[in-house]
Amino acid sequence: MPTTPTNGAARPFPALTAAQRYHLDVYGYVVIENTLTAHEVSALREALQKLKRDCIATGDPANATVRHARVSAYKPHHIHFAHIMESAPAILDYLAHPRLVAMAEELVGGSVRIEESEAIINARDPNADPNAPLAYGFHTGTRPQYGTYIEHGLYHCNFVKTLTNLTDLGPDDGGTVVIAGSHKVQCEEREIIACAYADPSLIHQVIAP
Fold first, then answer.
1. pTM of the model
2. 159-186 pLDDT per residue, tens
3. What's the pLDDT tens digit per position in 64-118?
4. φ and ψ at 145, to 5 degrees?
5. Residue-range domain boundaries for the chain
6. Could you count the other beta carbons within 10 Å of the beta carbon of residue 196?
7. 195: burial class by Cβ within 10 Å (0-12, 13-18, 19+)?
8. Phi and psi based region of residue 170 (left: phi greater than 0; alpha: psi -120 to 50; beta: remaining)
């Protein structure tokens, strides 16, 4: 049954199918295809490209702040924005998207708030060595037990990330990788990462064909 908050559109509940929820419990992530419409994707892409153009137009894109969004990392092939919430109506609509909010609430187990809003426009590094060993920037967020709990047999956590690919992303294009199941492991981060490098099948890469 959808839930209808007093300050927004109805949000579906449950937002995930039983199979999607099971996948999330086991692996710590789940991929939901075609969540946004083609129009929503187009509007978001244009808003982010405009933000990029406006930041470059400042003459100092590495330190630019435009419409309250700031550049936190800049290279000719890579730009990372932080606090993009107020930079364009299409971006705010995305961050408040009823389906996305509902999925976050289902995992958290209650009401949610936005802690961060970021975006990356990325291309292949022209100077990268294609034969170099793969290296990933693994990091953790909420640790098991401190920010997680079990309710009605389902895993919940108080910090959730929603990532959306706005362009096709193949297996050789980089993108998001996760260490499957690490959300429940209480070992030190460096030990988990070492295990993943020792057994690459533990590393799951998200693609968006």
1. 0.88
2. 999 999 999 988 888 789 999 999 999 9
3. 999 999 999 999 999 999 999 999 999 999 999 999 999 999 999 999 999 999 9
4. 80, -45
5. 18-22+31-205
6. 20
7. middle
8. beta
